Amino acid sequence: MRLELKGITKKFGDFTANDQIDLVAESGEIHCLLGENGAGKSTLMNVLYGLYQADGGEIVLDGKPTVFAGPGEAMKAGIGMVHQHFMLIPVFTVAENVILGHEPTKALGFLDVDKARELVREISERFGFDIDPDAVVGDLPVGVQQRVEIIKALISDAQVLIFDEPTAVLTPQETDELMQIMRQLKDEGKAIVFITHKLREVKEVADKITVIRLGKVVGQAKPSDSSEQLASMMVGREVDLSVDKQPAQLGEASFQVKNLTAFSAQGSKVLDDVSFEVQRGEIFVIAGVQGNGQTELAESILGIQDKVSGSIKLEGKELLGRSVKNVLDSGVGFVPEDRTEDGLVADFTIAENLMLDRSDRPPFAKGIQLQLKKLHEFAEEKLKSYDIRAQSIFSKARQLSGGNQQKVVLARELSRDLKLLVASQPTRGLDVGSIEFVHEQIVAARDSGIPVVIIATELDEATQLGDRVAVMYKGKIVGIVSPETPREELGKLMAGISA
Amino acid sequence: MKQQNLVREIFSGNAVIPIFAVLASFLFGGILIAFANEEVQQASGYFFSRPGDTISAVLNSVFGAYDALFRGSIFNYQASSAEGMIKPLTETLAYATPITLAGLGLAVSFRSGLFNIGAQGQIIFGAMFAAYVGLSFELPFLIHMPMAVLAGLLGGALWGGLVGLLKATTGANEVVVTIMFNYVALLLLTYLLKTPVFQAPNQVNPISSPVAESSRLPGILGDGFRLHFGLIIMLAMVVAVWWLMHRSSIGYQFRALGYNPSAARTAGINIPLTYILVMAVSGGLAGMAGASQVLGADRQLTVGISATFGFDAITVALLGRNNPFGVLAAGILFGGLRSGAVLMQANQGVPVDIVLVVQSTIVLFIAAPPLVRSLFRLPKPKAVQA
Questions:
Q1: Domain limits of chain A?
Q2: Which of A245, B97, B164, B233 is the most exposed place for a label (fewest CB within 10 A)?
Q3: Is the preceding peptide bond at B88 cis, omega within 30 degrees of 0?
Q4: DSSP readout, B164-233?
Q5: Under CATH, which number does the domain A242-331+417-499 receive?
Q6: Beta strands per DSSP E along B264-320
Q7: Which residues contact residue A458 at a Cβ distance below 8 angstroms, ignoring those fewer than 6 apart?
Q8: Any bridge partners for residue A195, and if so which?
């Protein structure tokens, strides 16, 4: 099967999301669509999948121009999609999920669940998925849920499979396994369109690469091109992918965590005797697959984790048991993992967000009277120095891109007198340009002579940024290693196998 | 293209839906008025032979009713004296005073993410505290009156703040607690009005003596009008609430809590304390509504002191989009409906209940912006770019 997109144009009001995009997907080929967040990748795929109607251009399937009125028609034509956010019903079993939308029926319209089970088992065996058709989807790990999505696409006999940012939620191992599955699908003669902004993955599996930027195709690339070349095409300027940092100038160990143990509200142990020390001028990365206690560790430092014992000392001062305000006032800068949920008030303006943690004190308040003039001067200055792209300091935080939102959070946290910086997944969901910026800021904070703790789920980030890397597994630190440690070894640690 | 965006911006703005919701409710009210009208019913009996009769009856009934509503609430051009002409407007403002004060209180809590529906109880507490001060002391006016008003504020703030305290310490849901507290306050008032604490000597009815002259809110425009100094307090509070919410660090923290409690917590804002403060401020404003009734309007404490102001205030706060000036506009609208309804019934025989229906449908329409939009063919607000 050969799928051709010719000159696809899609506009939203004044904004052109896709501008004359051409793309060809052929059987037995993995075609990567590479571009930053917001470059128009997902829009293009939604046009192809019939979720949007193109304003110009055409979709040609095996030489025949086609129009899809909706996903149903696209599916019938043999196009399947594995969405970034899974479209599964958590309380249904695998079999029930997989047949949703085209349920096989017996006489009198009874649901033929046996047939569904059979189908799931068959595909599962063919690809070595090892999935129980009767398992409830909500109970499955994300990696397995993704396979259910794949089965769902295959069961409707899709010939073209679109993967939309499929690795965002996966561990390194699961990512490797997914790459393997994609190759296998390719060998079966499927055409695969793989949307991503991660260069490593592209170089690993792509046969062809199309790079798009700001809604336009900027060119084709080869998997053999260097990461730097790919990144520059994607971003539109020279990009330095390695984190640029001098050797650490280490000082005393001013941040100490000892025997930290915490329990969840349900009573299970989420932190298990965690101890470490971080020196001034050092970036200490805590790596690990999400959900192994990192969030709880960060929240313990900030003072919002209940049921926690042990000790957290910053410059000899015990932080555990203090209020959040007190911890922040002790000189802790905190960049939360989920910036829209914990870092920002989306309905506040940029200026208002910049004083979220210090609205009650000078220079932003005199008594209880807000000093808006001072705030606006401060905000104007930060808008410039952090290159926050917004119409003005009065733009609402929700109107900003992820990268610019993170810049607002960083501008706020780094503008206090810090004695410690804690950042949880500081580059999650950001584009290459913003990642570069965030990394620079973190290194600058380190070089100012404070201890820095970074929680990272991506190995590349952990090893590039860190001066030392600790790996967490099931609430424990299973190893503290040098960032030069080979990837495989780190991967093993992340899976709980201590060296 | 530019112009289209402008239109869009105006229509997605805050004031549009409430204004059209009010409009829609009046249209709906008009239909009900027509249906309930006897002449319309009679004329519709021979609709097919003389449809003109039905149509003119409908127009007569609806325009007559709304004309009476206008004369009863804003300007009575049929009155014989100048005093009579402006009287309706003063009545409207007199009604608007307690509703707006309580509405301001609720707006503060709604903005802060707390659904305080206990204004009714908080008004009662404010009224009791104010009445106690007004009944128990003999002081110079310049001390006594402000003291009684502040007592009202304190009473409401305590009763509201207690809800905040319960939420902060035990996680109790403020909706449930405030509903229950409304009953507690009313029953307490009823009880106290039968004991010497409040009950007037030689009285069998649950009613207090008039509050001391020196504690009363003086009338504005003289004895012929019910308008009193409470109106000035109310207007001052509109500005004060605006300042509190938009120019003070406390209001900033209130809003942060309302928009995103997790971010507020992560930024070190003391959430339990903020709960208590929000509820105290909210209750305090409602308490002032109670004080204004006891010291200005009724001048004595009765079981019916809070009327339905606490519940009307919920609608007023919603209709005013929790913005102090919006609340003022909504409060005046509701005051007008209330004062106009009297004349509407007396003059046109339209039941007062029609006004209640209009008030209720306003709530319905506000709660369903898409309905209002499709009714008036307003453009959809611009979707937020993901």
A1: 2-235, 242-331+417-499
A2: A245
A3: no
A4: HHHHHHH---HHHHHHHHHHHHHHHHHHHTTSTTTBPTT--SSBBPPPPGGGSPPBSS-TT---BTHHHH
A5: 3.40.50.300
A6: none
A7: none
A8: A33, A164
Q: Which of B302, B293, B146 is nearest to B214 (CA)?
A: B146
Q: Contact B201/B210 with Cβ under 8 angstroms?
A: no
From the list A337, A202, A285, the residue with the least C-alpha distance to A461 is A285
- Strand, helix or coil at A474? coil
A 10 A CB-CB count for B353 gives 12
Helix (H) or strand (E) holding B142: helix B141-170
Q: Which residue has the higher pLDDT, A171 or B298?
A: B298
What does chain A come to in residues?
499
State whether residue B255 sits within 8 Å of chain A by CB.
yes
pLDDT tens across A310-354, in order?
Answer: 999 999 999 999 999 999 999 999 999 888 889 999 999 999 999
Confidence bin at B14 (pLDDT 50/70/90): low
Residues of chain A positioned with their CB less than 8 A from the CB of B252: 352, 355, 359, 370
Exposure on the CB side of residue A5, measured as CA atoms within 13 A: 28
From B276, B294, B296, select the one nearest B284 (Cα to Cα). Answer: B276
Question: A26: part of which helix (H) or strand (E)?
Answer: strand A15-26
Output A51 or B260, whichever has higher pLDDT: B260
Give B-chain residues touching A360 at CB under 8 angstroms: 249, 253
> CB count, 10 Å around CB of A125?
11
| B10 close contact with A: CB closer than 8 A | no
Which of A323, A328, A342 is nearest residue B263 as measured by Cβ atoms? A342
Q: Which of B4, B14, B243, B252 to mutate against chain A (most A CBs within 10 Å)? A: B252
Chain B contact for A484 (CB, 8 A cutoff): no
Residues of chain A positioned with their CB less than 8 A from the CB of B1: 14
d(CA B280, CA B160): 5
Task: Identify the burial level of A492 via C-beta atoms within 10 angstroms of its C-beta, where 0-12 means exposed, 13-18 middle and 19 or more buried.
Answer: middle
pLDDT digits (tens, 9 = 90+) for A427-451: 887 877 788 899 999 999 999 999 9
Beta bridge partners of A246: none
For domain A2-235, give the CATH number. Answer: 3.40.50.300
Q: What would the pLDDT profile of A77-116 be if each residue is shown by its tens digit?
A: 888 888 877 788 888 888 888 888 777 777 777 777 888 8
The CB density around residue A116, as the number of other CB atoms within 10 Å, is 22
Whether A366 has a pLDDT exceeding 90, the answer reads yes
Indicate the domain borders of chain B: 94-347
CB distance from B247 to chain A under 8 Å? yes
H-helix or E-strand containing A205? helix A199-205
User: Residue B133's closest CA among B322, B291, B366?
Assistant: B291
Dihedral of the CA atoms A355, A357, A359, A363 (nearest 10)? -70
Interface residue A323 vs chain B (CB under 8 A): yes
